[in-house]
Amino acid sequence: MAAQKELSPGIVVLSAVVGGISLCTGALLTVTSLFGYAAGAWVSPEALSPGLIGAAMAAVAPALFTIGRARLWADVRSLVLPLVIVLAGLFAVSLLNGGSLQAAEGSPLFLALFSLGWVATLGLLAVGAVGCLVAQYRRPAGRTGAAPRHPAVPLPGWSKPPLAVVGSGWLGIGAGLLAFPSFWGALVPWTVNRADAQGLGVWALALGVGVLGALAEDDLTRVRPALRAVPLIALATAVVLAVHFRSVDWTSGPGASLLALVTGLFTTGVSGHWLLSRADRRSTAAAEAVPGATPVATPEAASEATPGAVPEAALDAPLPAVPDSRSAPADDV
């Protein structure tokens, strides 16, 4: 039997807590940015950078709330691993750029208190996220299947090259902004300081890890939570960029590259949703064709079904003939 790790309660609680905090904090940063105010934890030369960070935080929150529906770790790790990168990365960036925090710069009381709360909350969440991740990997595997699990909805071959390009692009930009903010920050098509460059780099790195992680999973049913987050992040980013359209140098190479990466991110999420929905419909139709079978299209749906439900692989198999046990002919004895 195939051994798979079940999802630990700690990951479920962490995702719900982070989702609530991200939704509130992200909405605050996004709305203030849309009105032209930079209300981030650190002082920024423009309102665009904290707005983009806030937009990503708010957009990922709905997907985090759905993690508790999953039963297996493999079905949510494509979203949880980038989440840990964001929490630990933003906390490290805040500490490394402590001199740029609103409290250190003598900003108004609200912004100063917000920056102190930002650092304290990120510190607690980062430690909790790392602890939950370690506990998840130390969790013993359970016997959850009769055979090694094969991809239920594998990625089509045509989608893998563009997926690799989009993921590598975000990963490379994020790593560059984090490791060399002075050099790569100058290539950002709007004005940023060191903290802005590294904060944006954390999110770009997490997006790259998530997209490449989906490519490695090669199963759309295992990246369902991440598919909910990706198009929302792209849309929220596009809204903030549209409002600050004049602040971005769209005629430069980095400006065109940013537009291509955001478009690629949105296309990745929408196409993934379409492929997964089509597979769900086909699986449900196949299940309904078998009289008395319970339609269980995906592992996520299987986890919500009652114990003993018919596995998806068995739905397409012909039903064996059952001999009548009430009477047996004499020549069969």
What keywords describe this structure?
single chain, 333 residues, globular, 2% strand, disordered C terminus, mainly alpha
Shape: globular
What sequence of helices (H) and strands (E) makes up the elements?
Answer: EHHHHEHHHHHHH
Summing up helix and strand content along with how strands pair, one would put the structural category as mainly alpha
What number is the mean pLDDT? 86
Q: What's the total number of strands?
A: 2
What is the gyration radius calculated from CA atoms? Answer: 24 Å
| Widest sheet: strand ordering | 1-2
Report the biggest beta sheet as strand number plus sense, adding barrel if it closes: 2 strands, antiparallel
Secondary structure tally, helices: 11
Proportion of strand residues? under 5%
Q: Spans of 5+ residues with little confidence (pLDDT < 50)?
A: 144-148, 299-333
Distance between the termini: 36 Å
Helix content: 55-70%
What is this entry, summarized?
By secondary structure, this protein is mainly α. The chain has helices at residues 9-34, 48-65, 77-96, 109-138, 160-179, 181-185, 194-217, 224-243, 253-288, 299-304, 312-315, and strands at residues 2-4, 142-145.
Summarize the structure in words.
This protein is mainly alpha-helical and 333 residues long. It has helices at 9-34, 48-65, 77-96, 109-138, 160-179, 181-185, 194-217, 224-243, 253-288, 299-304, 312-315; strands at residues 2-4, 142-145. The protein has a two-stranded antiparallel sheet with strand order 1-2. The model is unreliable at 144-148 and 299-333 (pLDDT under 50).
